[in-house]
Amino acid sequence: xxxxxxxxxxxxxxxxxxxxxxxxxxxSAPVSTAGSECGQVEFTREDVEALLNERxxxxxxxxxxxxxxxxxxxxxxxxxxxxxxxxxELDYAFEQEKLKNALVLNEKHCAVMEASLKNKEExxxxxxxxLRKNFESAQIQLAKEQTEKLAANDSLGxxxxxxxxxxxxxxxxxxxxxxxxxxxxTANQRIQSVNDMYKLLQxxxxxxxxxxxxxxxxxxxxxxxxxxxxxxxxxxxxxIGNLKGQFSALQDQLVASKVASQDDIMKQKAELVNxxxxxxxxxxxAKDERDHHLTELxxxxxxxxxxxxxxxxxxxxxxxxxxxxxxxxxxxxxxxSCDRRLQMSDLTTxxxxxEFEDQKQTIIDLKSRVEEAELxxxxxxxxxxxxxxxxxxxxxxxxxxxxVRPLLPGENNGDEGKTISYPASLELLGRGIDxxxxxxxxxxxxxxxxxxxxxxxxxxxxxSQLVQSALDGYKVCxxxxxxxxxxxxxxxxxxxxxxxxxxxxxRCLEQIFETRQSLRSQGxxxxxxxxxxxxxxxxxxxxxxxxxxxxxxxxxxxPQKHAIKHDAHGNTHVAELTILDVKSSREVSxxxxxxxxxxxxxxxxxxxxxxxxxxxxxxxxxxVNESTEQQVQGVLNLIDLAGSERxxxxxxxxxxxxxxxxxxxxxxxxxDVIFALAKKDDHVPFRNSKLxxxxxxxxxxxxxxxxxxxxxxxxxxTGESLCSLRFAARVNACxxxxxxxxxxxxxxLDRLSLG
Length: 755
Prior knowledge:
This protein is α+β, with helices and mostly antiparallel strands. It contains 16 helices and 19 strands. The strands form five sheets. Strands 3, 7, 8, 9, 10, 13, 16, 17, 18 and 19 form a ten-stranded mixed sheet that branches. Strands 4-5-6 form a three-stranded antiparallel sheet. β14 (about 600) and β15 (about 610) form a beta hairpin. Keywords: ATP-binding, Coiled coil, Microtubule, Motor protein, Nucleotide-binding. InterPro entries: Kinesin-like_fam, Kinesin_motor_CS, Kinesin_motor_dom, Kinesin_motor_dom_sf, P-loop_NTPase.
């Protein structure tokens, strides 16, 4: 950063700093010049370039006093320029604070918008409830009309039955009439016979006449009865016609009421749809405004990071170095061409020698500038490390990341949304997790929450800077905690044979070896040592030991004793533990495969390959910079804890039962230690188990510690998941010692030659 400040890929010209004058750019803060030697000095890009490209001329190259004075004057101007840049940096820090305040205001505005959206949503719910009530009343009215329709149908059926009865009576009368007609015919025949016998049987004739008159009266009565039946029939037909008219009128009323109610409902529905559409448009506008604010926030953060990050300075210095190297090459080419011209020209030998000396002096000056740029590059790297470690200390010494594994084949996929959810608010996005148990919601907040679809690479990116601290000379500890089958070993070790699913341990080692190689250009040389052990049934086992007898255990007791010791500097040593020097990540991968084969695993009802021990991977880093005579010593501990389990679920018996009891006991001791640290007790029970005693420097010392809490998403593991989240919350609340970098200056007799 020489003479300019980069902002969004554009060159920002320098501005004067004189007696608190205003900036030349609208988005810069006023410059404070109180107590500065450069308060009356104005620097522009041309001034800085001229200052950097200035060549000091001397009257006599053997006058060292004059050369020293000119050099002191040049250095003084460089210091003024550097102080001016420092004040400019303070101005940008002030601008960053203004941007943070603007961010807070935007967040408040977003909260107000969310509250208004909630109010509108409640109003919509009330309107929908009223519509539901209206619809229910319409349904009740329709049911009443249908009931009346059924009653009309019943009356019509009764009338049809009465008509059938009348028709049956009419049929009976017709039969009687036929019979009467038949009798009349027989009577006529008898009358004929009586007429024939009239003379002989007069008395009998008179009686027959009486009988005939009687039959005639009966016939008249039958005719009258038939007439009355026809009248009743016509009346019934008229009643049926009237009932049909009433039925059709009722049907018309029903159709009209249905059409009217449907039209009203459709109108209300259309109005509600329009209102919902308008509300959705307003909601989309609010979301767009929020996205716009988030985009502005990201851009502001990016600009702030650009202003605060010294990587731009390093990049510019590297660019300057490369340009100076190109200039050296160009000057060398010019020197060669000059030599050829000297051979071809007719100049005297004295003139040729003077020109050659001038070119040589220019090369020497350029080399000195390259050396100064390299020194600035080293100082920038030191400042980057200091700022990075300060950021980690501000975040807290014990950080907690939560990772939810995806559902496995055969598990109930429908319960995940009911059991585990993630808040969508801006404050808790990516940091909050909610767990439902017995219709009760439990909310937790951690430094980071990884969803089930998060890849191994995304997880490693979050911890890569913490791994970098081990190369800077800090103690770093990362351990995975959770119930059995929750994905701890997958997080730490990954899936063998799949490069995309490598765990944190292989990725950490790759980063360390790559960074080690890149720091060689800055004069750093590192030595790396690896050890791996497991704690099985409260017994320490060396996983890198080549002695098979030492690896065997009898009832959980190893024939070889591995005692844990902590020295005065907080370093941990395990007696008789195999420690190997490594030169590449391939060697470490081979050792990891060897340790995985020796590690204790077993099958339970909850996990096909359950880790039955605590796995501890330790990488000791020793670095030396011979140019700065600085030495650092860092330690990286990566721990895969055995999973907690309940005997009622795991179904462990025999050796598995003993292993489960030992695992739960050590994890319970870890919980006691965390509880004592949270309460800041004078006595912390580190010695209650081998695990807590081994982790004592990480939990109560000067180490940078990160905990992964792994969660299983199925509903049957809700109880264990809740216990794990509560334990992680206690860990996140612990305050331990401030991390301390292990560095010193190499003594002449203590210098090491590291390859």
